[in-house]
Design a protein that fits this description.
Blueprint (H helix, E strand, L loop, with lengths): L10 E2 L1 H8 L3 H9 L7 E3 L3 E5 H14 L2
Antiparallel strand pairs: 1-3, 2-3
Length: 67
């Protein structure tokens, strides 16, 4: 995992990941199963969270691929 210089990483809950990517919950989980989206981290048992830097990196790859 690479953290962007000067950027403090934070955890995103599913609603934050959905807002950031403009994807619905089921699409995110289907992409995770297919290996096409960053996996979540288990926080305090069943709570799931994504690192913002990993979600941002995933988005940048999609944008770069569209050119």
């Amino acid at each position: 995992m690479e953290i962007i210089q000067g950027h403090s990483d934070r955890f995103l809950q599913i609603r934050d990941a959905m807002e950031t990517t403009i994807l619905c919950r089921s699409i995110i989980y289907n992409l995770i199963k297919a290996g096409g989206f960053p996996s979540y981290y288990a926080i305090k048992g069943e709570r799931k969270a994504w690192l913002e830097s990993e979600v941002q990196a995933w988005l940048l790859v999609r944008v770069s691929a569209s050119y």
